[in-house]
Design brief:
Blueprint: E1 5-9, H1 13-29, E2 36-40, H2 51-54, E3 64-67, E4 75-78, H3 80-91, H4 104-132, H5 139-160, H6 176-185, H7 200-210, H8 213-218
Helix pairs in contact: 1-3, 1-6, 4-5, 4-6, 5-7
Length: 223
Amino acid sequence: MAKPLLLYTATTPNGYKVSTVLEELKAAYGTNVIDYDYEKIVLSTNRQKEPWFIALNLNGRIPVLVDRSHQPAPFTVFESAAILLYLVRKYDLEGRFAFPTGSDEESELLQWIFFVHGGVGPMQGQAHHFRHAASEDVPYAKKRYTEETARLYGVLNMRLEGRDYLVGPGRGKLTIADLNAFPWVRLHQRAGIETLDPFPHVQAWLNRIAERPAVKAGLGIPQ
C-alpha cells in the first residue's frame, strides 16, 4: 500500500535534508502520523529532465515531495527548504523541530534557513563542481568558492559558540535550520576544506547531529 508521502530524491545534500527531517519526524511521532515512500533519481541519467518529472518541478531538480494524502488532490512541493517548512507545518504537531508561527524564534529559524539556502548551499555547490565536475581546471573558481564556503562556516561557527544548535533559547534545540545545513557541512572536504579545526563549534555541532539515529537513517535514503 502506498504511503502518504512520496519523495523523489538522490544522494546529494539537498536530498539528505529532506530524508533526515522525514526520519526525525517519524522517530518523534510514529508512522501513524507520517510515513513515506521514496524513488531514487540517478542524476547522471537525466531522469529529472524528463517530461514526467518536469510536470512535478519545472526546474528539473531534486528533491520533490508529493503529498498523496492531500485533499482533494495530491500536492507537490519542490525546493528543499520549502519542503522542510511544509513538513513541519503539517506534521510537526508539537513543534519539536520548529517554533510557533509569528514568534521571534520562528523568524530566527527562517533567517538561518535562508542563510544556508542562499549562501552555504550555492557556494559549496560551486566549490564541489569546480573541484570535481568541471570540464576544465579553473583555479580562480576553485579558490573563490572554497574561500567563500569557509567564510560562511566562520559565520556558523560564531553563531554556534556557546550553543548546541542554531536556533532556540539557551543552547538551542535541533530544528530544520540545523538539518538544512548539516548535509552540506558534512561534505566540507569535498569543498576543499580539509579540516574543521578552524571552526570548533561547527565541528562539535556536526558530530552532535551525526550521532542521532534518525539522521543516520536519513543519510541511508536513497539506497
